[in-house]
Amino acid sequence: MDPSGADGLPADAVTCARLGCHAVGAVTALTVQDTAGIEDIHPVSPELLDDQARCLLEDMPVQAIKMGGLYTAETASVAAQIAADYSQVPLVLHLGQRARPPADAVAEDEAGDLLAATLELVLPQTDLLVIEHLRLAQWQADGDIDIGEAPTPMHALLSAGAQWVLALGSPQRPGHYANLLLGPGGQTHTLPWQAPPDRNSDTGGVAAAAIAALLARGLDMPEAVRQGLAHAESCVAASFLPGMGRRIPNRISAP
To answer: If you count DSSP H runs as helices and E runs as strands, how many of each does the chain have, helices first?
Structure first.
């Protein structure tokens, strides 16, 4: 949970409310952070995450799930099992901005285990993966994913189990970028991408939450993505600078 309100559960609740949905949430970790960055992360136990999520899912008819902030392989494993048990509920998985380099060998091993668990366990349960093109490029450059015979990393992620993949800020030609949506049977949609203001926080989380809310309201995937991206762009365009760090998308004033 981001206590600064820039992303995570508090921010997603506002996004859902603006789009006519009621948000509930299960906390995967408590963070110590402000608008400048994260100082510390305290993942919750897998048992607590499982209890939180199942208590809600057994109480009310949840119409869509947005998942992000999976900080340990054990958390990813629990999240994957919950998603499998509720496979009829659309799952939007948001993997955020490029990760910082691990501080030591132990952190590097843990990051590798988390990525492997996410791709092997959570991805096959995912209806839509939202990821920055730069993170995909980082994975490929670092050898973290093997695309095999797939023409692009996006195609490799589809082959690994995702139903749809949305890559944000994909280069089309020198100086030109777009959001690319790739789906079943090679369906491809090219959607506008707008460079965020300087010092902006991660905007993919806004888009992922908006898309999940729109899927909950019954829109099909391409239309939910189109409207969700437009909503996120309006939030980012109205972003504000509340502290000494990054700008925060204005989820309240967005139409």
So the answer is: 8, 8
